[in-house]
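Render this sequence as a predicted structure.
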Amino acid sequence: MFFYRNHLIIEYIGINVNESEVDMVLKGLLDKIFKPTQQTSQQKTQNISQADVEAIIDAKLKEHAANIQSTNVNQQNVKLAANRNDYKLTAKQIEFALSLIDKVSNEFKLAIDPSELTVKDLNRLIAYQ
């Protein structure tokens, strides 16, 4: 920097800048440092009518009721699937189950009446083989 007769001349990479340009640059830098120009977005407040609030609440309640109903239906389907294995056997299935029981009669004995066997019991016998 060189001072010459109340004028500031900056020589930097061959560029001459006078005092007024330096003042503008410094003022701009100081403004950016101390007064950030971030524009804060002002949120507009919206007035919601009572009817709109009631409509939103009704929609949410209906959605919630539909979710509960679908959950109940799913739980009933699971229970039905579990109960399917508890069905009684037909005559042919009983004969087949008894033949499987005869094969393991040295290890196990049938403790219930053969007419009380269920599909679940038959599946277990088949899996054991």
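Summary. The radius of gyration is 44 Å. The beta strands are 2-4, 7-12, 15-17.
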